[in-house]
Amino acid sequence: MADSNFNRPPRLRPRWRVETVELPASPVPPAPRANTAWMQALLPIIAALLFGASALFGFGSWWAVLPALVLAVLSGGFTLFQEHDASRRHAQTYAEQQAIFADRLATVKARLRRLHEEERAARRYLAPDPAELLRIAGADERPRTPEPRLWERRLSDDDALELRLGCGTLPASVRVVAPTDAPTDRRIDQLIAEYTSLHQVPICLPLLQLGSLGIAGPRPAVLGLIYAMLAQAAVLHAPTELRIGIITSVTTAADWQWFVRLPHCQSLDETPVGRALIATEPAAVERLLTFLLDELSRRREGSSAQQIPFVIIVDSASLVTVHTALGQILRDGGAHRFIVVVLTDDWANVPEHCAALVEVDQRMGRWTRAGEAWPVAPFQPDLLERRDIERLTHRLSTIRLAEVGTGHHLPRQVRLIDLLTAMLPDEGGIPSHWQQVPSTAWHHDVPIGAVGEGKWCYLNLNEHHHGPHGIIAGATGAGKSVLLQTIITALAVMHGPDRLNMMLIDFKGGAALAPFANWPHTTGFVTDLDGRLAMRAIAAISSELRRRKAALRHVSEHYGIHLENIADYRALAGRYSLPPLPNLLIVLDEFDEMTRSCPDFVSALIRVVKQGRSLGVHLLIATQQPARVVSDEIRSQLSYFIALRLGSSDDSREMLQRPDAAFLPSQLPGRAYIRSGSDVRLFQVARMAGQTNGQSDLELIGQRLIGAGQVYLKALDWQPLPIWHPPLPPRLTMQLPATNTQTVVGLLDIPQQSRQTPLLIDLRSGHVAIFGGPASGKSTLLARIVLDFAERLSPSSLWCYLIDGDGRLLSLLADLPHAGALVRPFEREALLALFRQLEHQLRERRARVLAGQSPGPALLVVIDRLAVLRDELRDTHGESDLSDLVRLARTGRDLGVHFVVCADRPADMPYRLAALFEQRLALRMADLNDYADVFGQRPVNQLPPQTPGRGYWLHPDEGLLEIQVALPTGCSESGDSRELMQGIRAQVAVLKATVNHTDQMPPPLALLPERLSTTHLPPSDYANATLRLVCGLAAEPPGPARLCLTPETSHALVFGLRRSGKSTALLTLAQSALTAFPSLRLLVIDGPRRSLHHLRTLPQTVRYVADESGIVTLSSELVGLRRDPTTCYLIVIDDYQLCRERWRDQFSQSYSATPNLFQHLVEIAQTGNEPFHLLIAASISYADDPLMRILDGARNGLILWPGRYESGTRLLGLSLPLIEQRNSDQPPGRALLISGDEEPIVIQVARHGEE
I need a labelling partner for 1112 at 20 to 30 A (CA). Which of 457, 563, 943, 1056 fits? Predict the structure, then answer.
C-alpha cells in the first residue's frame, strides 16, 4: 500500500458518570404484639362474675346480676375484636411497604446496571483490546483506511501512555451507599456485591506516571504482553509525541526485527545512533545510551525544546548491570519523561529502581507498585502474536501525519551529493573551481537545499547577500545537525583550503562536527569545552585575529598601500604573490549550553566577531532555543537566520519575526526557513544520508576532499596555520637537549600564539619554587628535575642534596651517585649537618672564586614539602626559624648552589625566603587566591583535579599559562603511581650502574655515629687543676666532646631515662678521669643493677659499695678521707633515684650527731674546695633534694635522650624537651653536653675501650 497522509481530528472521548447511589431502606416488619387482649377481655367478665356472686348472696337472685354479666361479655368481645383488626391492618401495611421497596430496589438496580454498562463500555473504548487496535489502524487481514481514532491521545490527556495489560476486575466508579439503621435485607447485600466491582474491564497501567516498569515471566508471555503494550502506544499516540527505543542482545534480536518499521522508533535527530532507535551490538548500545544520556542532560537542564515521552525497552535485566548508563536513566529518567521497561524471566531479577512490577504467564497476570503487596485478584493478559504486531507496524509505516505548514510544493527529501556531484573532485584530482580566483570573497552558488522541484536554495556569505554571520535554530529532531553538516560540506566543496578555513566548536560531544576534524579546511576542532578550554579557544581565536592584522599591516608597510580589510589584501595577492589569507568560518554548536555554562566565552566571542568582520572571520552558531540565548548584542552581529522547526512561537519570532517556524511539521525533518533582512523563504535542507559502495555520502565527500586538499596544498607549497592545538595531555613524557643548568620540566600551552612549547627552567636564572596541593604532582616534578640533570651530567658536574618531607618519590633518588644525602625533616641532627655542610661548601666555593677558579660542580638542593621542614626548624621560643635556609639561598646562587623547593601553599614559604625564588610554578591548589600570592595575579579558572602535573607558569608577555609537567624519564604515560615508582627505581639503578668511579662524588654528611669507641678519640688530660674528660664526639663544632671538672665546677650530673646509656656514660667518664689523672682514686656507689661493677677491680678503686652496709662503712670512712688534702677522690654514684628510694637512711637529710653519706655529699658539693669530685647519674632531678639542687644549679653534665622527657621537665637549667630534639629517634648515648652558660652541644657518648 502506498504512503498516505492521515489527518488527526479532535478527540472524542466518552465519559462515565461518577455518582453516589443510595439504596432504599428495607421496610421494618411489624413488631410482634404482646398477647394481652385475652387478659383485657377476661377482666370485665371476672369482675361481672364477682359482682354477680356478691349480688346473689346479697339479693338471692341471678336476675340482679344479669345486666352486669351481659355488659362484661360484650366488653371482652369488643376487646378481642379490636385486637384482631389491628393485627390485620399492620400486616396489610407491611405488605404494601415491601412492594414499594421492591419497586424502588428494581429502579436503583436498573440505574446501577446502566451506570456500570456505561463505565464498562467507556473503559473498553478508551483502552481497546489488540483486535480493536488492529481495526483502528486499518491493519486487518485486508488493509484499509485507518479510523479517525488513530493517534487520538495527546500528551495533554490524562490517559497519555496509560496502557492496557488485560482484563480483570476493578472497583466501580459509582458509589453504592447502603441505608443506615434499616433492617438487613439479602437483596441489598446482593446488589452491593454485584455493583461495587466491574468485571472483565481493562486493567491499565499509568506508564508515564510510573517512569519505569519491570515485566517478568516466561518469554512467550512476556513478549506477547510487551507486543500488546507497544501496539497500544503506537496506535493511540502519534509518532510526533512519542519515541520508542529497544536495547537488546544478539541472541534476542530476532524478536525485534519488525520494530525498525515502526514510525515511533525513528531517531529524534540525525544522530550517530542511526535511523531506528534499536541497538543490538555492544557498540551500538553504547552509542544509543550516549545519545539518551545527552538528551536526558538537556532535559534536566531545561535546554531541550521538547520533552516528548521516550519509552526504552530493555530486553534482559542483565543489560542494566552491564551498561551503567542504563541504571542512571532508570534512576533519574522518570522525572524527565524517560520510561524504562525491563523484560526478564523472573520478578526477582527486576532492577531495584523499577517503580512497578508485572508478572505474567499465558493465562493470568498481576501487577503492583514498588513497595506494595501483590493484588488479590489477577487479570487475564492481552497477548499479541508476532504476526499481528508485524502487520500493524507495516501498516503504520505507510501512514504519515498531515500537519499544517508542510510546504507541499517542496520535495520531502533532498540529497546533497546530487547537488554537488559536478563540483566534487575525482580520485586524486583537484576541483577546477578551487584554482579559479572568484570575483568575491565567497562563491555565491553554495547549495544547501531545495525551494522547489529542481530549484535549489543557495547560501551566499558575501557582505551584500546573506552576510558573514548567521544562526541556525531548531528543536530536537528538526534536523539542526544535518543542516550544520550540509553547510560545512557545501562550503568546503565550493572553496579550497586556501580560500576557506574552519574552526569547529562543539560544547558537548562533538558528534555532528567530528567527521570534519581531518578535512584540509579544518584548522581547529574543539569539543567537550569547560570553562578553561572555552577561554583557551577565545585566546586562540584572538591570536588568529592578531596574525591577520599583522599580515595586513606588513603588506601596508612593505608596499606602501593602505589596506582596510581582507578584500584589499586579496586584490594585491596576485600582483605581489602574497601568501593566501583564507576566510575563517567559526562554527559553534550547542550554543545554549555554551551560554549557560560559559557566559564569559560568549561575551568574548562577540568582541572577537566585531573585530573579525573586516578580517574575513565569520561566525555560524547553532541553538535550540534562540529566544533564551540570543541577546541584543549577538543579534546585532547576525545577518542571516535559518529556522527549522522550533518549540515555541517566541523562538520563531526571534528568528523570523513571525511564528511560522513553530508550526513546521515534525514529520518532515529538514524543513526550514531562511531569513536575510526582510526576505523569508521556505526550503528543504539537503542531507547526506545515502550510501555509495558501502560509504555514506559524508564519508565519500570527506575522502575526496582530503585527497584533493593534500594535492592542492602541495602544489601551492603552502599549509594553513593551525588555530587550535589539542589541549595539554594529562600525562606526558619528554626528552629534549638542554644546557648544563637547564632542564625541560614540561609542555607550556600558549594559545595566544597558537603553539605549545617545552618549558625550560634555567638554574642560572634563580632558585625554583613549586607550589601545589596534595596529589598535584609536586614530588613527581622534583623527581623529573633531579633525574633529568643526573642523566645528562656526571657526579663531577652535579651534586644533589635532598630533603624529603613527603617520604615517597624523593627517597627513591637516594641511591643516585649524584646524591650526597637524603635527609628527612624530623632527622634534626642530619638536617643541621646538611646546613653545616652547605655552609662549608659556600666558604670553599667563595675562596675558589676569589682565587679565579671555578666554584666546582653545580650543587642542587631539593626540598619537598617546606611546611614539614618549617615545623621542625623552630627556635627556643617555638617560632619557625628558616634563617639558615634563607642565608644559604641568598648567597648560594652566584656560587653554583641552586635550590628547588616545593610547598603546599604560598603561606608555607616566608616572604624572606619567597623573595629569593625568581622562578615559580604553581600546580593545582584549592584556593584560587593562592595563585595570586604566587604570581601576583589570579587565574580565571581552576585546574582540573584529576590531572596531576597540570599547573600555571607566568609568561613575561602572555601572563598565566597552563603547563603539563613531564614524567621522569623511563616512566610510561599510561602507568599508575606504582609503575611510576618502578620506573624511577629502574632509572636510578641504570645511572648507578653506569657511573664512572673516577668522578668526583659529593661529600657525604658528617653525622654522629650511633656507636663510638674511646679508642677513636684523643685522650683526656689534666692540667691546672682541671680534668678535661673526653666523653664522645661533638656534632658542632665537629670534634671530641669534653666534660670539664674545674675548681669552680668540680662536679657533674649525668641525666638519662632507662636504656639511654647513662651508666655507660658514667663508666666512660670515670675511665677517662683515671686516664687523665692516674693518681685519682675512685669511690664507687653502684645502684641495684650493678652497672658499675667493671670499676670494682680497678687498682684506683678505693671502695666499691652496692648495699646499705657498705654505704654505712663508706660514710664512716669519709670522715677520715676528707681530712687528707693530698689525695683527690672521684665519687661515682649510679642510679641515684633508686639508691635514694632503697637506702633512704643514707640518702636523706640526717640530724644525728654522726653524719650519713648524704650529709657528706652535700657538704662536699657546697664547699667546693675539698679534693673531691662528684659524678652522679640519675633519671630526674629532685627539687626537695639539697644535693641535686646544688649540682643541677651548677649546669655541668650530660643529658641523654633529651627529646624523650615530658614537657615541663627542667634539668641543668634547660627546659625539656628542646624543640629541635622533640620526638627524635636517637640511639643510646646521644646526649646534650652542658657546660655552664655555653650553648648545649649534641654529642655521641663513647664506650670506653670498645672497638
Answer: 1056
Residue type, 939: P
Decide: 448 and 676 in contact? Cβ < 8 Å.
Answer: no
Q: At what angle do helices 219-236 and 386-396 cross, to 10 degrees?
A: 20
Confidence of residue 272 (pLDDT cuts 50, 70, 90): very low
Residues 6+ apart with CB under 8 A from 92: none
Q: Which three cell numbers stand for residue 944?
A: 582540573
- For 1177-1205, the pLDDT digits (tens) are 998 888 788 999 999 999 999 999 887 88
| Nearest-angstrom CA–CA distance, 949 and 783 | 12
774: cell is: 596534595
Parallel/antiparallel/unpaired status of strands 1021-1023 and 1026-1034: antiparallel
Question: What are φ and ψ of residue 529, in 5° steps?
Answer: -75, 140
Inform me whether the pLDDT recorded for 210 exceeds 50.
yes
Q: Which residue has the cell 507495516?
A: 394
* Alpha-carbon distances of 486 from 23, 513, 616, 672, 686, rounded to whole Å: 73, 11, 21, 13, 7
Q: How far apart are CA 535 and CA 928, in angstroms?
A: 17
Nearest one of 741, 465, 775 to 618, comparing CA atoms: 465
Distance of alpha carbon 712 from alpha carbon 848, whole angstroms: 65
Give the position of cell 560545512: 488
**Dihedral class, residue 43 (left if φ above 0, else alpha if ψ from -120 to 50, else beta):** alpha
What is the rounded distance in angstroms from the CA atom of residue 926 to the CA atom of residue 905?
9
Q: How far apart are CA 640 and CA 470, in angstroms?
A: 5
- Of the three residues 402, 430, 450, the one that is the final residue of a domain is 402
Identify whether residues 111 and 238 lie together within a single domain. yes
What is the SS3 string spanning 490-505? HHHHHCCCCCEEEEEE
Instruction: Look up residue 311 and give its three cell numbers.
Output: 519509552
Alpha carbon 87 to its chain's center = 92
Which one-letter DSSP state was computed for residue 178?
Answer: P
Would you say residue 243 lies in a domain?
yes
For 1197-1244, give the DSSP string.
EEEESGGGSPTTEEETTEEES-GGGTT----TTEEEEEETTSPPEEEE
Residue 728 domain-assigned?
Answer: no
736 within domain boundaries: no
Which whole-number Å values give the CA distances from 1109 to 390, 1095, 1105, in the listed order?
117, 19, 8
- What length is written for the chain? 1251
The answer to whether residues 936 and 906 touch, using CB atoms and an 8 Å cutoff, is no
Residues 962 and 1028 in one domain: no
Burial class (CB in 10 A: 0-12, 13-18, 19+), 1021: middle
Write out the residue range of the structural domain in which residue 200 sits: 1-402
Rg (CA), the chain: 52
Domain end residue (candidates: 926, 958, 993): 993
Could you report the per-residue pLDDT of 921-948, keeping only the tens digit for each?
999 999 999 999 999 999 988 888 888 9
Q: How many domains does the chain have?
A: 4
CA distances from 308 to 10, 101, 262, 296, 332 (A): 20, 55, 17, 11, 16
Average pLDDT on 1128-1141 reads 92
Query: Which position has the grid cell 627556635?
Result: 875
CA 1035 to CA 1242: how far, in whole Å? 6
Write the DSSP string, 1058-1074: TTSSHHHHHHHHHHHHH
Verify that 712 and 767 share a domain, yes or no: no
CATH value at residue 237 = 3.40.50.300
Instruction: Single out the residue of 800, 818, 847, 816 nearest to residue 988, CA to CA.
Output: 816
Nearest to 642 by CA among 461, 462, 521: 461
Q: Are 274 and 340 in contact (CB under 8 A)?
A: no
pTM of the full predicted structure? 0.62
End-to-end CA distance of the chain: 110
In a domain, 1251, yes or no: no
d(CA 814, CA 809): 10
